[in-house]
């Protein structure tokens, strides 16, 4: 077998005789409505990252204390979501992707799973050896490893049930994204757009590990799973084999469009939604055409994978503006009518509100500094290019905003049905960009651009903000020194949480943005906060601390911060990060003191 199982005795033996899971066999959608649990990375299929728990409120959040901690043992970028099912917390470490199951209330370790992940996968991982979390369904935990394996584990014991290989590191493919479990399938995409990898989304049978369907991002319609049910809203997206004809001959086969962000699901429409990555190479002069279906949002039938509609946010992408960011599914009042929409905080700097049934762009408004484009034409859906910033071979284009990571990268937002606001962690960066010819060699960098990033106007590099998608405006914002690379969490107690790269975990009032509490962790934070209720009745909040990812390699890897264009240009933007933090590997779990959680007399304020 590809993987090796290592159980911790005697805890493993006890797990074998423990009572059966209360949730085994329950529908995952129903289970996600249990406020006590957090059963998928986005908490629910809509990807809201909203916890219905309200024990922690603005008036008592200042009493939060560390309940327990745990080290995952690998000081690289900690981006994993943590899941909680039946008072068991599950977390995945960066390469080699060890999996840990812990008692969610006490922190006691129940079992550990150690996959035999190929060491060579580290060499083809573009931007740190991160993992964004596991998936859960029907008593099983599903984990995607860096070397392209999807593994099913018994959630109670950690025993491996099956192991499926869905990619090849020799072609530069890796997996960093969190899978999504939908209707008996595990759905996962690939990474490696900077190595000429051809993007694909794969659905694997939960019972057997066999591939059910594969949807490529580029190529002929039969590969992209475009058939008679495909009805895009805009005429320019209609036509046969556009995944071939919008590329130079054969370039689509090494054209990127990888899928390493988030998948959401509408059970009523039975459709999944996700975005594809940038075209390859970054040097746009080598790939004339719209380069479909890269930088595209897809709606697909969850059973067959057949495309329902698609919308390309960045035709002929010039700047590495992947659109892998999340698509949060909500119903909004638009011009007096409630519409089923998705909210997509675009990497290109526009906050999209899109009809999730048709693919029509309802609104697209800039939510940070944008000069790489001049807006979005709502009649055609196409962005308006800034002709003064067209890359030319050997020419440095200066002051391009946003920079290649976009206004927001993978770090997920949170939506509150109480405030009807989207809480957005993001960066505030611009760049100088110079293209050069590059050749393709399988499994090696295929970029063709030199990038130097720096703080945007105002001198700050990150922001946490609340956005009103109906009024199309920013409600409040908090400027941060570094890019805000952590995810967001919002709760029914009207408290929002996020972390910073200079080691702070923060709680703010979801209505006003007022800072209520902060705690300095052991390393910079780029993880995903979540909340659950323990067996003791207390509400807990958890976050992984450990700087890394694309912006953090200057603090956790052997990268000289004086080389501004290192790490695909991000080193320039975070040269000073090493003076604030080093790498880390610690899971922090917070709760109110027991008396305070039970409604007792407020304790003295906790130290900040």
Automatic annotation (TrEMBL):
> Which cofactors does it use?
Ca(2+); pyrroloquinoline quinone
* A Pfam family the protein falls into: PQQ
Pyrrolo-quinoline quinone repeat domain location: 38-362, 477-541
Binding-site list for Ca(2+): 194, 278, 320
Q: So where does this one cross the membrane? A: none
Q: How is the cofactor bound?
A: Binds 1 Ca(2+) ion per subunit.
GO CC annotation, single: membrane
Q: List the disulfide bonds.
A: 126-127
An MF annotation (GO) of this entry: oxidoreductase activity, acting on CH-OH group of donors
The positions flagged as active site in the entry are: 320 (proton acceptor)
Keywords from the named record: Calcium, Disulfide bond, Metal-binding, Oxidoreductase, PQQ, Signal
List the InterPro entries hit by this protein, alphabetically: PQQ_b-propeller_rpt, PQQ_MeOH/EtOH_DH, PQQ_rpt_dom, Quinoprotein_ADH-like_sf
Q: Where is the secretion signal located?
A: 1-23
Which residues make up the binding site for pyrroloquinoline quinone? Answer: 79, 132, 176, 258
In the record, the note on similarity to other proteins reads: Belongs to the bacterial PQQ dehydrogenase family.
Official protein name in the record: PQQ-dependent dehydrogenase, methanol/ethanol family
Organism of this sequence: Alsobacter soli
